[in-house]
Write a structure and sequence with these properties.
It comes from Asbolus verrucosus (Desert ironclad beetle). One of its GO terms (molecular function) is D-xylose 1-dehydrogenase (NADP+) activity. Strands 5-6-7-4-8-9 form a 6-stranded mixed sheet, with helices on one face. It has a domain at 68-222 and 239-272: Dihydrodipicolinate Reductase, domain 2 (2-Layer Sandwich), CATH 3.30.360.10. The protein is an alpha/beta fold and 583 residues long. The chain contains 16 helices and 21 strands. It has helices at 21-30, 45-58, 72-83, 115-130, 226-238, 241-245, 255-272, 282-291, 309-318, 329-333, 349-358, 373-386, 400-410, 443-458, 534-546, 557-574, and strands at residues 11-14, 34-38, 62-65, 89-97, 138-145, 151-160, 164-171, 179-184, 187-192, 199-201, 206-208, 303-306, 323-326, 339-342, 362-366, 390-393, 419-425, 466-473, 479-487, 493-499, 507-509.
């Protein structure tokens, strides 16, 4: 164990199990430590982008420990390829496999198992080096899964521009040739033991490299070569490589290359059918974990549904939920289900919530309730017709802090409120659902709903008389930032802003005095800050249903409609249009 606050500790090497890489690396970076983390850097592209963003914000060195890239043989291989001695490269063949059937960490999902993450990173980084990071035009992969749902073996063909291809294979069931072959129009290069190469065979000559001398014993083949990447990291930090040049990464394996490697492993896993908990919807994990802080007599989760049955089954297994459905019809028809929490992508909220209401289920739906005011009105009308509870899951409203704020405002503690400001933003460029129109992307729907509901809560009962809006679109025509000045009668005003590009103060200002409240305790970790508070909205929904209410007084239907109208107005001014706006 090492105290991460140790002033004399410069850099941390992380060699734990794959699923722990992200959290430990994040912890070290947040405490000002440089990081050399074993491959794979994280479990998926999403986590990798988040980690790199932290390193950039902290101006700290972060390197994925693909030790192969620091071997002298790899430095020589780059020179040989750059010289063009074998002509135009047309094909790369790489195999990597051993009989690893007795290695538990390669079997189990909770250990981040499978050959793609453990062996595949090596074959992928080799073809990445040869083709200099060029993105493939097509990928076809096959593989075999074990009973735990991780891959025992894979084979894939990667097609690149100019009819170049890479044929890659990994196996935990049998010994493979374990060499890399580069085929050019003028010759062939062979690299035996390519992952820890000390030999390169070219048409002109054979290059051989000695490993560092030592009397120490090692657990794995050529492990003394790990010293190369350690020394490289030391040189980057000690020589001020990043401090004086502005770089915080290694030229041997850049951040962009780590992102691409993670992306390529995601492609392989998707085609072969390997899904890890880290790939699943994080808000659903946090909601279930929060609800499970209550006794089963009050809240019992009996079923989960997802578009992909494997995803639903994996989520059910990870969270001890008895039933899993492909799609949402099964939940709608399940007689054991009283209320459904809808936490999928924004464009699906309306249809899934409508399906549940039509089948007699109460609904707690993530914000935004729908994609626009028209859909929201239809959903609210349906809930009234069916006499069923419907609540937009603006969890903020159920926190004790909000209830105290309402009491203070109602009591006139600060007099007549004339001004409120609220700002909410994070650097979320890596989150695909915030970019794409088809996924209901944009800062307004995802983050803006929070700032808008806050000022709505402060000026409850008032309607705006004027709204001035500005914003910025990304290359997919969803908003990455927006700001508005909302004017109310008698000169009252709210200034609000949201951003998916940069971190904002993330605070609402109305009252100066500080009040603090504890959250529910859970033995299971959450993925997002203060997610234990999701339990409050679940309990609010239970209490409302128990009392025969069809809406929550903390988030009534007319306020959901008003929120949708405000978001519609902001989107119109900024220029964000979704297909649902034309229905």
């Amino acid at each position: 164990f090492v105290y991460i606050s140790d002033y004399f500790l410069d850099i941390v090497y992380i060699g734990s199990l794959n699923p722990q890489h992200f959290e430990i690396s994040k912890m070290m970076l947040e405490h000002g430590k440089h990081v050399l983390c074993e491959k794979p850097l994280t479990m998926n592209e999403k986590q990798t982008r988040q980690l790199i963003e932290i390193a950039k914000n902290k101006k700290l060195f972060l390197k994925e420990a693909v030790w192969s890239r620091s071997f002298p043989a790899y430095q020589e291989l780059r020179k040989i390829l750059d010289s063009g001695s074998i002509g135009e490269i047309v094909q790369v063949n790489v195999t990597f496999g051993f009989d690893l059937s007795n290695i538990d960490r390669l079997k189990f999902k909770e250990m981040g198992g499978g050959t793609i993450l453990d062996l595949g990173v090596y074959v992928l980084q080799f073809q990445q080096l040869v083709f200099k990071g060029e993105p493939p035009t097509d990928v076809v992969a096959v593989g075999g899964l074990n009973k735990e749902g991780t891959d025992d073996y894979t084979s894939s063909i990667w097609t690149y521009s100019g009819d170049k291809i890479a044929c890659l294979s990994t196996s935990a069931k049998a010994q493979c040739p374990n060499e890399a072959v580069i085929i050019g129009t003028k010759g062939i290069i062979r690299v035996p033991e390519f992952w820890c190469a000390t030999k390169i065979e070219t048409p002109e000559k054979t290059y051989e490299f000695e490993l560092p001398k030592t009397t120490a014993t090692f657990n794995f083949h050529k492990s003394v070569g790990l010293s190369y990447q350690a020394e490289h990291a030391r040189q980057c930090i000690q020589a001020g490589y990043f401090m004086f040049s502005g770089k915080i990464e290694s030229p041997n394996i850049t951040h962009e290359e780590s992102i691409q490697l993670a992306h390529h492993m995601d492609i392989l896993r998707k085609q072969v059918g390997v899904v890890f908990p880290q790939d699943l919807d994080q808000i659903c994990h946090d909601f279930v974990t929060a609800v499970q802080t209550y006794p089963e007599s009050d809240h019992k989760i009996v079923a989960v549904g997802a578009r992909n049955l494997n995803n639903a089954q994996q989520f059910a297994k990870d969270h001890n939920i008895p039933k899993a459905y492909e799609g949402y019809d099964g939940i709608a028809e399940d007689k054991d289900v009283d209320i459904v929490y809808v936490g999928n992508l924004n464009p699906q909220h309306f249809e899934v919530s409508k399906l549940m209401l039509e089948n007699g289920k109460h609904v707690l739906c993530e914000k935004p309730l729908t994609m626009n005011a028209k859909q929201t009105r239809r959903l609210v009308e349906l809930a009234h017709q069916k006499n069923l509870f419907l609540m937009e899951a603006v969890w903020s409203r159920c926190f004790l802090a909000y209830k105290e704020m309402k009491r203070l405002l109602d009591a006139g503690v600060i007099g007549d409120v004339l001004f409120a400001s609220v700002h909410f933003g994070h650097a979320l460029q890596h989150v695909e659902r915030l970019k794409a129109v088809e996924q209901g992307g944009g800062a307004i729907l995802d983050l803006g709903v929070y700032m808008l509901q806050f000022q709505q809560y402060v000026f409850r009962g008032l309607r705006p008389v004027k709204i001035a809006v500005n914003g910025q679109l990304n290359d997919q025509n969803t908003d990455e930032s927006a700001a508005a000045i909302i004017t109310y009668p008698n000169g009252k005003m709210a200034v609000v802003s949201t951003s998916a590009r940069i971190a904002l103060p993330n605070e609402g200002i109305v009252v100066e005095k500080t009040y603090e409240y504890e959250l529910p305790k859970s033995p299971v970790p959450f993925l997002h800050k203060n997610s234990a508070g999701l339990a409050f909205e679940a309990e609010e929904a239970r209490q409302c249903i128990k009392a025969g209410k069809i809406e929550s007084p903390h988030m009534p239907h007319h306020e959901s409609i008003e929120l949708a109208q405000l978001m519609d107005l902001l989107r119109k001014e900024v220029g964000v249009v979704f297909p649902q706006d034309f229905e």
